[in-house]
Write a structure and sequence with these properties.
Number of helices: 14
Strand content: 5-15%
Oligomer: single chain
Strand order of the largest sheet: 1-2
Order of helices and strands: HHHHHEEHHHHEEEEHHHEEHH
Distance between the termini: 46 Å
Number of strands: 8
């Protein structure tokens, strides 16, 4: 999230001296293979790879803290208002899953905290007074979330209905606050504000301007909607698979309906927000926008390039849609877009970086478009019959929508972070100056891999054990003052699966 995964350094101009220049296919291969090229200083590559891996792991858990707990509360609210015991059972079970994932997120988040100091001392040493402020706020929200998560879990056994529900509300709000704090730190790296620098050192900090920087609000909304989309489609996919296997009872229908509806509502909103953010990037981060649109030279009537890579400053193998990039940026074909040639050579991203940012953006938009179409399909099926769709092709696609949403989330963060390169703090600190310059970081990376593997495997084992226990009717209900005693039997259904 914070430090781009890689940014290969440009090769020397005479690297092909003494032999014929490479063919065009060879050059294209070299641009792509630069993704794993060496970096200078030598600590830069392992630091980037470790940060990319740990953030890629941790970002999967964020939607479950922000959005999954919200869906849990929707079921809880339905149970209280309608005396729906199926919804109550879903809320009970989802709260247990949320607790397991919260514990995993606590471990992975702690590792990330230490990484910032161990891998990027240049960032923390120079700009810690500003960059560290949002993380101090995030720590407060984390402890608040942990405390009320424990109260909510144990509250099933004795709290009154509405006070118990309110403890879950605090969990969801605290998770949103923690996410906002992390987004504030990331937004500050893209558009730094609120600091006074003298001789390269921060001598004054305006906390409110650091937190509510120019990139904060749109990044925050974008991430919140992404959380609802990812968590919604991933959870719904589990129940879509159950529906495909003939489990058409009310429990499975409701387990699909709640998260999928949340995700389907968020999808069109995400498109509107994403379109607005693209124009914000065009206005405030021209270098990133040039990489996104893969624009080598400044000009107007810029085409929208689909696919392709940048080789020797030229677009290769892309499909150009005439004038579309200019129209999307400024609503008219004559809109001028600053190209890569407008960036000083010393801080200009190389071809490999531009190619990855552009392809990452293409993947993000393509996957989001597929999810939007699926959401519209769901809306149409619901409008026709006012019931959970039973169309098998729809359920097949819905069962994999979570993986597609996760791919969209990952590709979006690639665009955000790699698109900032070669800067860690835009205009203030280069990534090569932020990394640790002593020691061998590869053993640390290997240790982190082992830790994450153990934590991930442990979480998978626990969740699998819970699922198997839940598949046996009547073994997992928690006796609550306003809930079922014992667990619910499966309701009778007709040939269409309706109870």
């Amino acid at each position: 999230m914070f430090i781009a995964t890689w940014s290969p350094q440009p090769k020397a101009r005479d690297e092909f001296a003494g032999r014929p220049p490479p063919s065009e296919p060879e050059r294209e291969f070299m641009v792509l293979s630069a993704l794993v090229g060496a970096a200078d200083p030598p600590q830069l590559l392992p630091a980037r790879e470790q940060m990319a891996f740990t953030l890629g792991f941790h970002i999967v858990l964020v939607p479950f803290g922000v959005a999954f707990t919200f869906m849990m509360l929707l079921c809880h609210y339905r149970a209280l208002r309608r005396a729906d015991q199926h919804a109550l059972l879903l809320a009970q079970r989802w709260s247990k899953v949320a607790a397991v994932l919260f514990a995993v997120g606590a471990v992975s988040g702690t590792v990330l905290t230490f990484e910032l100091g161990l891998l990027w001392p240049g960032l923390m040493g120079r700009y810690g007074p500003a960059f560290g402020f949002p993380f101090a706020i995030e720590g407060l929200f984390f402890f608040l979330e942990a405390i009320f998560m424990a109260i909510y879990i144990y509250g099933w056994k004795g709290l009154a209905p509405w006070p118990h529900f309110c403890t879950g509300v605090v969990v969801t709000l605290a998770s949103v606050g923690g996410t906002a704090s992390v987004i504030a730190a990331n937004g500050w790296m893209n558009q730094p504000a609120g600091i006074t620098v003298n001789n390269g050192r921060v001598v004054g900090v305006a906390p409110s301007k650091v937190f509510f920087n120019g990139a904060f609000w749109w990044e925050m909304v974008h991430m919140l909607l992404a959380s609802y989309i990812v968590a919604g489609f991933m959870v719904a996919g589990v129940y879509a698979w159950g529906l495909l296997r003939g489990r058409r009872d009310q429990y499975h229908r409701l387990g699909f309906q709640v998260p999928f509806t949340v995700a389907a509502i968020a999808m069109p909103l995400q498109f509107l927000v994403g379109d607005t953010i693209a124009r914000q990037v065009f206005d405030r981060e021209p270098a990133k926008f040039a990489a996104i649109e893969m624009v080598p030279k400044t000009g107007n009537h810029i085409p929208e390039t689909l696919g392709g890579i940048l080789v020797d400053g030229k677009v290769r193998n892309g499909i150009g849609l005439p004038d579309v990039a200019s129209i999307l940026a400024g609503f008219r074909p004559s809109t001028t877009i600053k190209g890569l040639d407008a960036i000083p050579v010393a801080v200009r991203p190389d071809d490999a970086v531009v190619s990855v940012v552009h392809l990452g953006f293409d993947v993000m938009v393509a996957t989001a478009t597929l999810l939007l179409l699926l959401s519209l399909w769901y809306g149409w099926l619901w409008w026709r019959r006012r019931e959970v769709p039973t169309n098998r092709w729809f359920l097949r696609i819905a069962s994999i929508a979570g993986a597609v949403a996760l791919l969209s989330l990952w590709s979006g963060w690639v665009v955000t972070e790699v698109g900032r390169q070669p800067w860690t703090v835009v205009g203030l600190l280069l990534t090569k100056d932020a990394v640790a310059t002593r020691g061998n970081l590869w053993p640390l990376f290997a240790t982190v891999l082992a830790i994450y593997f153990c934590v991930g495997a442990g979480a998978w084992f626990v969740l699998r054990t819970m699922r198997r226990r839940w598949s046996v009717e009547g073994t997992d209900a928690v006796a609550v003052p306003y809930g079922p005693r014992p667990a619910l039997p499966a309701p009778a259904t007709d040939e269409r699966g309706r109870s």
